[in-house]
């Protein structure tokens, strides 16, 4: 899945099982209790003893096997959905004993089912659990058990493997190997939906490079995934997620998918944006968005694009994950597209998103994604910016700048960055420069680098669109903060702070330029011209260009101080290789 919106992973599915009443012969061991330490010890005691034959259990035979099943079941019931219990059992070293049960050739189907469920649960949602399960060799044992004659064992093993492959720590499956691709295809051909869903999970997890995408496409995996759309909702959604992974950012694969079988796969996905399941509709939208970005030539139907916008706006009303991610999917769809942003505006997207924003608590994932969608809608259209400027939304944006959650502060800065493209809005009203610059300057000291970068982006736009009233910025204390950040170890902070200084410097009076130079110092300016990052060099040279532009006296800054700045520019003239740096040096040579 992209770092944008995702369909999300299903939670652990197994329900807690009630252990059967103990027989008289086992009542004593049942009385040992269910404390974690005791359960871990009981499970370890049921494993093979050193020196015993391969597959031989500890003395007691059938009774010991019953005890192992009970211990595994009780551990599984305690850890499902309980992070605290998982961490406790991890500290006690229970995972190796759980996985050892999977490796036992003589283990009963009941023990294998419970061990597989426990192993999958340990790996689900807890990185330390996934590490322990992987280190114990669970993947190999569970993969082998997919061929077990007992269908319940196959089900449990497939579910456990799917949970493991949801972890970012799980090993990638080498889909460049023909043998491995054949194995994935065999899983997709299984009549067991848990197994086919596992295959989809493997594809999603192991399909990152263009070569891997092409390998799966050439083997016909996308078409096979489409053929499974008629199965259960969970499997259909898993297949949609896998198709997204296969076509993501790959023009060749996306084109093949869209044109194979006269566009059958493409039409099938389009049909799913009308599905009854909100999650399926979201995934179908994400699939079409990925296809459109990878291969625009195969996605030119404006009716489908408009329908996508409408479906995503409807999905924002859904509870939970779907409603949270729908605005982010909309953001991805309309990003950098004047045409699609105009279409979104005609469907009242700004009004609908604003209403949802005001109706939801500010400190939620949904508020973050709605703010990001509104930000994108305001990136190109003045009409969208004007529509957004109600008193309620303006007040909320100012509150968001001071929110405890960094993601909210970042999203609010992003929104203000694009709203501030409007000089009219900056000149008056609730979000005028006088109102927003103070909170933004405070965010330059934020503990989160992401917030600092986002605040700098907003200040950059305010500076360039507030040319007649730069005094507001100069008296806000922003210059000293920008100078401080220009010396940061973080290259992005250096870049953004220099960009902001460049924009503030544009068309300033000699007096105001002198104020900035005194804050910055020619020594710092010279150092930034020779920064280790070429994009910082380029923006610093643009800053120098704005410094000397317009007034003859300004040239003294470059030739003064023993020619320190001039020497730095000369070094770049001789050494620069980045095109942007060379262009800026050429500009300066004209002065």
Automatic annotation (TrEMBL):
Q: A Pfam family matched by this chain, by name? A: Arm
Q: Where is this region: Disordered?
A: 1-65
Give start-end ranges for the coiled-coil region(s).
none
SUPFAM superfamilies noted in UniProt:
ARM repeat
Keyword match Repeat: yes
- What are the start and end residues of each ARM repeat? 435-477
Q: Tell me the InterPro entries matching this sequence.
A: ARM-like, ARM-type_fold, Armadillo, ARMC8/Vid28
Q: Which GO cellular component term is one of those annotated?
A: nucleus
Instruction: Indicate where this protein resides in the cell.
Output: Cytoplasm; Nucleus
UniProt cross-references to PANTHER family, sorted A to Z: ARMADILLO REPEAT-CONTAINING PROTEIN 8
Q: What name is this protein filed under?
A: Armadillo repeat-containing protein 8
Q: Which organism is it from?
A: Zea mays (Maize)
């Amino acid at each position: 899945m992209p770092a944008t919106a995702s369909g999300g992973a299903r939670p652990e599915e197994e329900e807690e099982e009630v252990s059967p009443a103990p027989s008289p012969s086992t009542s004593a061991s049942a009385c040992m209790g269910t404390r974690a330490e005791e359960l871990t010890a009981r499970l370890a005691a049921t494993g093979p003893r050193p020196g015993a034959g391969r597959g031989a259990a500890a003395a007691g035979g059938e009774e010991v096997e019953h005890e192992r099943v009970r211990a595994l079941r009780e551990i599984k019931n305690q850890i499902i959905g309980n992070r605290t219990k998982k961490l406790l059992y991890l500290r006690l070293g229970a995972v190796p004993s759980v996985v050892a049960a999977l490796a036992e050739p003589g283990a009963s189907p009941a023990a294998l089912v419970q061990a597989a469920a426990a192993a999958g649960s340990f790996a689900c949602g807890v990185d330390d659990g996934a590490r322990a399960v992987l280190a114990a060799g669970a993947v190999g044992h569970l993969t082998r058990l997919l061929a077990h004659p007992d269908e319940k064992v196959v089900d449990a093993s497939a579910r456990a493997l799917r949970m493991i492959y949801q972890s970012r720590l799980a090993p990638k499956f080498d889909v460049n190997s023909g043998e491995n691709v054949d194995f994935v295809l065999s899983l997709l051909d299984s009549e067991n939906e848990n197994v086919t869903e596992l295959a989809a999970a493997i594809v999603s997890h192991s399909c990152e490079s263009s070569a891997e995408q092409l390998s799966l496409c050439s083997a016909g995996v996308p078409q096979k995934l489409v053929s499974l759309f008629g199965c259960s909702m969970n499997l259909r959604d898993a297949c949609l997620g896998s198709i997204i992974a296969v076509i993501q950012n790959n023009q060749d694969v996306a084109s093949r998918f869209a044109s194979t079988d006269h566009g059958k796969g493409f039409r099938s996905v389009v049909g799913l944006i009308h599905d009854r399941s909100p999650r399926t509709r979201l995934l179908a939208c994400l699939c079409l968005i990925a296809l459109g970005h990878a291969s625009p030539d195969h996605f030119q139907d404006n009716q489908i694009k408009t329908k996508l916008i409408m479906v995503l706006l409807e999905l924002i009303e859904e509870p939970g994950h779907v409603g949270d991610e729908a605005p982010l999917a909309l953001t991805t769809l309309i990003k950098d597209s004047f045409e699609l942003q105009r279409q979104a505006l005609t469907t009242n997207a700004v009004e609908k998103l604003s209403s949802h924003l005001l109706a939801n608590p500010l400190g939620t994932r949904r508020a973050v994604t709605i703010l990001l969608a509104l930000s994108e809608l305001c990136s190109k259209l003045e009409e969208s910016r004007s529509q957004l400027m109600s008193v309620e939304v303006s007040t909320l944006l100012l509150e968001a700048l001071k929110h405890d959650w960094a993601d909210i502060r970042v999203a609010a800065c992003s929104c203000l960055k694009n709203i501030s493209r409007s000089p009219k809005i900056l000149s008056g009203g609730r979000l005028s420069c006088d109102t927003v610059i103070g909170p933004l300057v405070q965010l330059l000291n934020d503990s989160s680098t992401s917030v600092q970068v986002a605040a700098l982006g907003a200040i950059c736009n305010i500076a360039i669109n507030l040319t007649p009233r730069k005094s507001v910025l100069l008296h806000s204390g922003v210059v000293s903060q920008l100078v401080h950040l220009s010396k940061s170890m973080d290259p992005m902070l250096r870049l953004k702070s220099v960009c902001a200084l460049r924009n503030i410097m544009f068309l300033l009076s000699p007096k105001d330029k002198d104020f900035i130079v005194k804050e910055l110092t020619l020594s710092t300016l010279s150092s930034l011209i020779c920064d280790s990052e070429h994009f910082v060099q380029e923006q610093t040279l643009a800053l120098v260009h704005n410094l000397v532009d317009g007034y003859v006296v300004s040239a003294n800054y470059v030739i003064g101080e023993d020619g320190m700045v001039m020497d730095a520019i000369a070094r770049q003239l001789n050494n620069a290789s980045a095109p942007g740096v060379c262009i800026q040096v050429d500009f300066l040579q004209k002065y």
